[in-house]
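**Protein record**
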Amino acid sequence: MATRDLTRRFAELRVLQHGVEGSASESKRPGDAFSESGLLDDASTGTSWASTRHQLPPLWVDKVDGVEEDVRLIQLKLRELSALHTKRLMVTFDESEAERERDVEDATREVTALFRRAERQLKHLMGESAGLTPAEATVRNNIQRATARKLQSLSGGFRTSQKDYLRRLQAQKKGDGAFDFLAEEERASKHAKGRLDPGFNEQQMAVLEDTEVLVGQRDGEINNIVKSIEDLSTIFKELAVLVIDQGTILDRIDFNMEQVVEHTREGVSQLQRAEEHQKSALPLKCIGILVVLIIIMLGLLVWKHSN
């Protein structure tokens, strides 16, 4: 569907209105006769603000556009976060792993903040109903519910991806192959010396310390993911409130569709009756009788005058 962006024009006209109202309040004196239409005229364009105002979208359309922009950013950030999850789950033991963890945490915070901002804008949109006609209120409510459903779907997908990432991270943490190299060296030492050496060499201790640090970092990351999932659960519940009456809307749509079908059937029946009436021979018979009567009357009239 083709659309036009009138936001800039709307902002210019709104600023113009404020300026005109301010100048009118400063210059108005008792006894002066000011015309409201004159005050609202745009001298540069020759158009009236009252006539131009009806050509602009309502104020709540700006908030809807803001929510749609947040939804677009959320979709973009979710794709980036999915790629970061894949990179993070690659097992490495260098500094890049900590950097990947920070990238994942930053992206998660950004997505959560976008969800909260979009939710706040939707709530503000619910409260802006003053001055709306019933038709405009219906359109606004339908757009709001559709946007809330879209946002709720994204929130559910985000929560699912976070749970999957948490599950894979915990499975990676609980892997049994982290210390296999120690067992291999112990078995080799036991086979060579005939006994088990209870100590660790310097290399083993260094690897063990690095592993403990890595496990601690993963514990912190898991806690952050759990917290983000809890926040998402709260957002998901709040969004569900915005679409709680979706069943009622669907019922009304079904009722309207049934009414349309019923009216269509009645229209088809009327058309069939009209077609049958049009094909009937009775009107033709009436026309023929009238023509014969007219001819007889004309003959009588001519015979009377000829006598």
In short: The chain has two domains: 7-53, 60-174+183-242. The chain has ten helices and no strands. The mean pLDDT is 70.
